[in-house]
Amino acid sequence: MHTNWYECLVETIQFCEVNCENMATYFTRTPDITTREKQLQFLRDCADLCGWTSKYIARCSTFAKDIAGLCACICEACGKECLQHCDEESQHCARICLHCAKECRNFAYEKFEAFGDPADPPKVIHSYE
User: CATH number of the domain at 5-110, please?
Assistant: First the structure.
């Protein structure tokens, strides 16, 4: 259960990061790796930037919206590249990346006008039961 939209956003971005890392690793072990060079580059770029973006948002960085805007662009490019490949894994990855792009774009540009006061960060409740 998400305690607030910050946590939900961070988890969405982290899920995209992990998925892209897994996909890049998976495709490096397939026989058609040479036909996926651009996809592999995009997957790695997307994973790296998602990692940074989730950290910036989690710490309420002044630059969180800026990096989220860049993350939206990279995730969208990765999603579109994955759509170019017909395999089920690429199609699934595309959906995850495009969803992450939409959420990052909403955070960076549209839906969330005020990020919040860094002195009063969002509360994240962890359950370690």
Answer: 1.20.1270.360
Contact 75/98 with Cβ under 8 angstroms?
A: yes
Quick: pLDDT tens for 94-103.
999 999 999 9
Query: For residue 59, how far is the Cα from the chain centroid?
Result: 16
How far apart CA 38 and CA 81 sit, in angstroms, is: 8
> How is the chain split into domains, by residue range?
5-110
| Number of neighbours of residue 16 by Cβ within 10 angstroms | 30
Q: Indicate the pTM of the whole model.
A: 0.82
Residue 36: DSSP 8-state:
G
Helices (H), the chain: 5-28, 37-58, 64-83, 88-105
pLDDT at 125: 36
